[in-house]
Amino acid sequence: MSSMLDHTHDAAARSWVASANDPATDFPLQNLPFCSFRRSGSQEPWRIGVGIGDQILDLAGWGFADMNALMARPGHERRALRHRLFDTLKAGAPELALLPQAQAEYAVPCRIGDYTDFYTGIHHARAVGRLFRPDNPLLPNYQWVPIGYHGRSSSIVVSGTPLRRPRGQVKPPDADAPVFQPSARIDCELELGLFVGPGNALGEPFGIDEADEHAFGLTLLNDWSARDIQPWEYQPLGPFLAKNFGTTISPWIVTMEALAPFRIPFTRPEGDPQPLPYLDSPAHRAGAAFDIGLEVWLKTPACAEAVRLSRSNLRHAYWSLAQMLTHHASNGCNLQPGDLLGTGTLSGPAPDEAGSLLELTLGGKQPITLPNGEQRSFLLDGDQLGLRASAEKPGFRRIGFGPCDGVILPAA
């Protein structure tokens, strides 16, 4: 990990942007996440921006007009840009015009050609398996192969975009036939999304130790789910309408370079199968996992303040980000800049570390009681669900991911 650290991770470095020096900010000088933005209410073209404190640095004059083209650049060029941004925004450098984030509106940060959602959270997999398959909660392939399915990129929306409650086929347990109706069991899924940087040519996979070169950065991701539609439709081919009605992501991409201080060893529990050789190496074991804290928050129309429902961490993932990338391309599949890979729900081992309401309420059998007395098994119309994430380590600045919020509207 030490070889990945440089002067841009110096916790003592300060910015001429005063808000970037606030210990509580998500976007200190050491972060520098990317977004796609324009002035609120304008018809200006979308531009690439960099978050610094509560401001945005516009990269329009820096020769970067297309986020996907930026993501396609090799790692050494991305690191050179980070160094340039850091040196421009640190204390003592010339001050430039900035736009307050409160005066901006955001789009999905890049063109997402393809979206694959993985299933890397083994605690979530076991908990959901016990609900759907009590006699066989964890299928035998789970500990050998990173499981994923192809999602719908066109319904990925940026934080703050409302989503309508979907309709679909629901098969009540005591009914002879399904009915088509609005879902009554809307759920969240606490995930991170990995944006692909440089891709690979069709038919040309890459090795596990090359995976970092193909990873651009992470964003918060909520893979909304209709739990009453899901069990009727997901066999034998997997999730469909229960998932593709909407996926919310943060407007910000936190680069892999910013997250270098928070790498930790990748390990498997004693007695579990070790990854096959194409998904394993000494370098991978030494630092392929990440210590990133995650939270789920709920705000209802009757709540004055949002309530934290759970906390978890990316360290609980059974498969690493590098393994997701490597396995996806292992059959020659050509990944492209801007492709998005979801981690799957990142639940921890404790009950209060669950990343979905399905787990927190034991399938709806034990509703959550909120401080104002309201109860929730699943989300009601008007409920706002928010995800938050940050990485913290002694000796380094805290790195945040910004908001990932969405509200559920009534069915059309």
Question: Could you explain the architecture of this structure?
Answer:
The protein is an alpha+beta fold. The chain has 2 domains: 2-107, Fumarylacetoacetase, N-terminal domain (SH3 type barrels, Roll), CATH 2.30.30; 115-409, Fumarylacetoacetase-like, C-terminal domain (Fumarylacetoacetate hydrolase, domain 2). It is 13% helix and 26% strand. A hairpin with a 5-residue loop joins strand 23 and strand 24. The longest helix is centred in the first third of the chain and has 15 residues, at 75-89. The N and C termini lie far apart (50 Å). The mean pLDDT is 96.
Short description:
The chain is α+β, with helices and mostly antiparallel strands. It has seven helices and 27 strands. The protein has helices spanning 67-71, 75-89, 122-132, 230-233, 282-287, 321-329, 357-360, and strands at 34-39, 47-52, 55-58, 99-100, 104-107, 115-118, 148-150, 156-158, 163-164, 167-170, 179-182, 186-187, 190-196, 215-223, 225-226, 247-249, 254-255, 263-264, 289-290, 293-299, 307-313, 340-342, 368-369, 375-376, 384-391, 399-400, 404-409.
Structural class: alpha+beta
Rounded mean pLDDT is 96
Shape: globular
Stretches where pLDDT is under 50 for at least 5 consecutive residues are none
CATH superfamily of the largest domain: Fumarylacetoacetase-like, C-terminal domain
Q: How many separate domains?
A: 2
CATH first level of the largest domain: Alpha Beta
Separation, N- and C-terminal Cα atoms: 50 Å
**Fraction of helical residues:** 10-25%
Count every beta strand, where a strand is a DSSP E run of 2 or more residues: 27
Q: Could you say what the CATH topology of the largest domain is called?
A: Fumarylacetoacetate hydrolase, domain 2
Give Rg in angstroms: 21 Å
Main sheet record:
8 strands, mixed
CATH architecture type of the largest domain: Alpha-Beta Complex
Report the sheet-strand fraction.
25-35%
Tally of contiguous helical segments: 7
